[in-house]
C-alpha cells in the first residue's frame, strides 16, 4: 500500500477542487495513483451532483453580459439553493462564463425539453428530404441522427463550453454543483443581437 503524503493530497485538491478528506480517501482507494484518484472523485462527484439535482433551486442571480461593441447582449437567470451561494464569487463567475458562452454560441433553448416542437418538425422534414431515395429504416436513422446533432448545437446544456470545448455546459454545471455543494440550474436566458 502506497504512503499518501500531504503534498499528494494538496496536488489532487488543486487539480480537482474536491475536499481534503475526499482527496485523501480517493488516493488511498487508488493506492496513490493520481489519475485513478481523479476518476474515483469524478464518479463520486457525479453521483453527489445527481442527488443534489432534485433539490429546489429558488435563489440565484440575474447576470448580464454585453459583448464588445455593444452588438450582442445576454441576460441569464442562474439558480441555486441559498442566497449565501448566490453571493459566492465562484457562482458569479459561473454565471458570467455562461453569459459569455451564450453570446458566442447562440443557443435557442436551455435543454431539449424546451425546444419548440414546430422547429423540430421542420428539421425532421428537411432531414427526411435530404435522405430521400434511401431505404425506410435508413431514412429513420438518418433523420434521428440529424435531429440529435441539431439539438446538440442549439441546446445550451449540450453545447461545448467556449472556454473549454472538452466540456459541455451541462458538465460545467455538474462540476460546479460538486465543488459548490448546491444544486445549480440555468432557469432561462435571452440573447439579443443588433438587427435580429
Automatic annotation (TrEMBL):
Subcellular localization = Cytoplasm
| Region described as Involved in Mg(2+) ion dislocation from EF-Tu | 82-85
Q: Which UniProt keywords apply?
A: Cytoplasm, Elongation factor, Protein biosynthesis
What is this protein for, i.e. what is its function? Associates with the EF-Tu.GDP complex and induces the exchange of GDP to GTP. It remains bound to the aminoacyl-tRNA.EF-Tu.GTP complex up to the GTP hydrolysis stage on the ribosome.
Q: Which residues cross the membrane?
A: none
Keyword Ligase attributed: no
What's the gene? tsf
The record's listing under InterPro entries reads:
EF-Ts_dimer_sf (IPR036402), Transl_elong_EFTs/EF1B (IPR001816), Transl_elong_EFTs/EF1B_dimer (IPR014039), UBA-like_sf (IPR009060)
Is-annotated flag, keyword Disulfide bond? no
Domain Translation elongation factor EFTs/EF1B dimerisation: residue ranges: 56-196
Pfam families hit by this protein: EF_TS (PF00889)
**In terms of one coarse class, where is the protein primarily found?**
cytoplasm
PANTHER family, from UniProt? Answer: ELONGATION FACTOR TS (PTHR11741), ELONGATION FACTOR TS, MITOCHONDRIAL (PTHR11741:SF0)
One example GO MF annotation: translation elongation factor activity
User: Which GO CC annotations does the UniProt entry carry?
Assistant: cytoplasm
Name the record gives this protein = Elongation factor Ts
So what family is this one in?
Belongs to the EF-Ts family.
Amino acid at each position: 500500500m502506497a504512503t499518501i503524503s500531504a503534498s499528494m493530497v494538496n496536488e489532487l485538491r488543486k487539480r480537482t477542487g474536491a475536499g481534503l478528506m475526499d482527496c485523501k480517501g480517493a488516493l488511498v482507494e487508488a493506492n496513490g495513483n493520481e489519475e485513478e484518484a481523479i476518476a474515483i472523485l469524478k464518479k463520486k462527484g457525479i453521483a453527489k451532483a445527481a442527488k443534489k439535482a432534485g433539490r429546489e433551486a429558488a435563489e440565484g442571480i440575474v447576470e448580464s453580459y454585453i459583448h464588445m461593441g455593444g452588438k450582442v447582449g445576454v441576460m441569464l437567470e442562474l439558480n441555486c439553493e441559498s442566497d449565501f451561494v448566490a453571493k459566492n464569487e465562484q457562482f458569479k463567475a459561473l454565471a458570467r462564463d455562461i453569459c459569455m458562452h451564450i453570446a458566442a454560441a447562440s443557443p435557442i433553448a436551455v435543454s431539449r425539453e424546451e425546444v419548440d416542437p414546430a422547429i423540430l418538425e421542420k428539421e425532421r422534414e428537411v432531414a427526411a428530404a435530404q435522405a430521400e431515395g434511401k431505404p425506410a429504416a435508413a431514412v429513420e436513422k438518418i433523420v434521428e441522427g440529424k435531429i440529435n446533432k441539431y439539438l446538440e448545437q442549439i441546446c445550451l446544456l449540450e453545447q461545448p463550453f467556449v472556454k473549454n470545448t472538452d466540456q459541455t455546459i451541462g458538465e460545467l454545471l455538474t462540476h460546479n454543483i460538486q465543488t459548490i455543494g448546491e444544486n445549480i440550474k440555468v432557469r432561462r436566458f435571452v440573447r439579443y443581437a443588433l438587427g435580429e
